Amino acid sequence: MSDGHGSTPDTPPGWAPNQPPPYGDAQGTPWAAPGSNPGGPPSPPQPPSQPPPPQYGQPQYGQQPQAPPPPPPYQHHPGQQPPGQGYPPPPYGYQQPAALRPGIIPLRPLGVGDIIDGAIKLIRSNPKAVLGLSVIAAALAAIPVAIGQALALDRLGTAVRTNDPTGLETTGQTDFLAQSGGSLISYAVQFVAVTLLSGVLTRILGRAVFGGKMTAGEAWRLTRGRVPTLFGVVAIESVALLLPLAVVVALLFGLITPGIDLGVFLLVTVLVLIVYMAYAAFLTTRLVLAAPAAVLERTGVMASLRRSWDLTRGSFWRVFGIVLLTGILAGLVGLVISVPFSFAAAFVGVLGSGGTGAQILVAVLIAIGGTIAAMITYPFQAGVYGLLYADRRMRAEAFDLVLQTAAIEQQRQGWVHASADDLWSSPPTPGQPGQGAPWPGR
Predict the structure, then answer these.
(1) How far is CA 422 from its chain centroid?
(2) Residue 146 lies in a domain
(3) Whole-angstrom Cα distance, residue 349 to residue 175?
(4) What is the pLDDT of residue 7?
(5) What is d(CA 90, CA 83) in angstroms, rounded to the nearest whole number?
(6) Which domain holds residue 189?
(7) Which of 272, 276, 283, 362 could be 345's S-S partner, Cβ–Cβ 3.0 to 4.6 Å?
(8) 126 closest CA partner among 110, 143, 149, 103
(9) Which of 361, 350, 292 is nearest to 323 (CA)?
(10) Beta partners for 58?
């Protein structure tokens, strides 16, 4: 029986056909399961769908947030750095870009090989000016020694040919005086010639660093104004070395008394000579860059000495090692070159027929050997000292940045300006990069 609201006794009160479940029909309801076909034939079974991969930090309905999995433990491999400790290693086969090298050296702090190679390239890059000036200085220094040795060999040959033992003794004393006199004259000539040569070669070196060349006349014209300063520097160095030596000699002669023990005298002599040699090595090393500074920076005598003292501060042993190695190499090269001429001169002087012609030939042979040897060793040593000066400025003042900037501009314009010489004379300004500021790690 209907109550007028469309309900029947079999249905619960308040039920309506269009209400959602659980009280209404399932037909047409939006809550039907996807893929179902209410009221129609059954749909074919669908394959089970895979749930989407969980997104970390975005929990699904009814799930707790999941934290990302921990990273795998780090395994160290040889040649690699752990993460967070410096920069990663460069890839295999990586090579650091080569430094700019417009001339005889790369424009960066130099190694020992770079300095020696640069000194050799200085001679090869400008042989006319370098060797032409060196042969003049070498000949002037070799001629006095050659004359003294020629006279000594002639007297020795005369004593051998006459078989006179008394003549041999007299010849030995005379030979010592002749050779000593020739050596003293040679040292005096070297003081003048080698000083001038070192200044001129340093000026040529300053241009050769940029790949430029300079004639001997131009080098002399740019250097002659620095000659008094060069002589002043060498004179002060000589006095600083000779005065202590005079004191040492006077002390040793003062110890010679009739009752002195010979062993004690020899011990004192050895100790005093060791102390003096250490002093001479220290002073020479600290002042070895004074001549290049006087020429390139155009400073005065005392300013050049102070400049060398400052540049070698903190790098004494390295500078000392390079100076010592340079002396050893120059001595070996000079010995190899001069020995054949010395043997030939000795053969002619002792075993020859004697006479004025033999004396002249002996002197010529010795002079040629000494000149050729000095012609190579003088510019080599001057080149090493000049490049050592450039290296110390690069390390202490980052001067390589100044040289690189100038070299790039010169390469862009296609030629080396004569004004490049003025770069060396720029005074260091502490606190400005490339103008005297210390370069870390150099």
Answers:
(1) 22
(2) yes
(3) 13
(4) 46
(5) 14
(6) 112-224+315-410
(7) 362
(8) 103
(9) 292
(10) 55
The number of CA neighbours under 13 Å toward the Cβ of 374 is 24
State the helix-helix crossing angle for 127-162 and 356-397, rounded to 10 degrees.
140
- Whether the CA torsion 115, 119, 122, 124 is positive or negative: it is negative
Q: Is the dihedral of CA 339, 343, 349, 353 positive or negative?
A: negative
How many domains is the chain partitioned into structurally?
1
Q: Between vectors from CA 187 to CA 182 and to CA 190, what angle results, nearest 5°?
A: 125
Contact 111, 119 (CB under 8 A): no
- Please tell me the distance from the alpha carbon of residue 17 to that of residue 13, in angstroms, as a whole number: 12
**Contact at 8 Å (CB) between 203 and 227?**
no
Among 247, 244, 246, 248, which residue's Cα sits nearest to residue 268? 248
Residue 419 lies in a domain: no
Q: What is the mean pLDDT of residues 397-405?
A: 89
| Residue 347's pLDDT band (cuts 50, 70, 90) | confident
The three-point CA angle 333-338-340 to 5° equals 120
* Domain membership flag for residue 322: yes
Place of tokens 């060398």: 308
- CA-CA-CA-CA dihedral for 334, 338, 340, 344, to nearest 10: -170
Burial class (CB in 10 A: 0-12, 13-18, 19+), 310: middle
d(CA 141, CA 181): 13
Write down the mean pLDDT value for the chain: 75
Per-position DSSP letters for 219-270, written without gaps between them: HHHHHGGGHHHHHHHHHHHHHHHHHHHHHHHHHHHHH--TT--HHHHHHHHH
Q: Integer distance in angstroms from the first to the last C-alpha of the chain?
A: 111
Question: Residue 295, class by beta-carbon neighbours within 10 Å (0-12 exposed, 13-18 middle, 19+ buried)?
Answer: buried
Residue with tokens 């000593």: 180
Q: Environment class of residue 119 by beta-carbon count within 10 Å: exposed (0-12), middle (13-18) or buried (19+)?
A: buried
Two tokens at 29? 């309801």
Contact assessment for residue 46 and residue 35, using Cβ atoms and an 8 Å cutoff:
yes
pLDDT tens profile 127-160: 888 888 888 888 887 887 777 777 777 666 666 6
Q: Which residues have a Cβ under 8 Å from the Cβ of 191 and sit 6 or more positions away?
A: 234, 238
User: How many CB atoms sit inside 10 A of residue 440's CB?
Assistant: 6
Task: Decide if 393 contacts 399 (C-beta within 8 A).
Answer: yes
Q: Give pTM, 2 decimals.
A: 0.69
pLDDT tens digits, 54-67 = 554 555 555 555 65
Tokens of 22: 């659980």
Taking alpha carbons only, the member of 279, 281, 315 closest to residue 388 is: 315
**Tokens at residue 437, please?**
């500021």
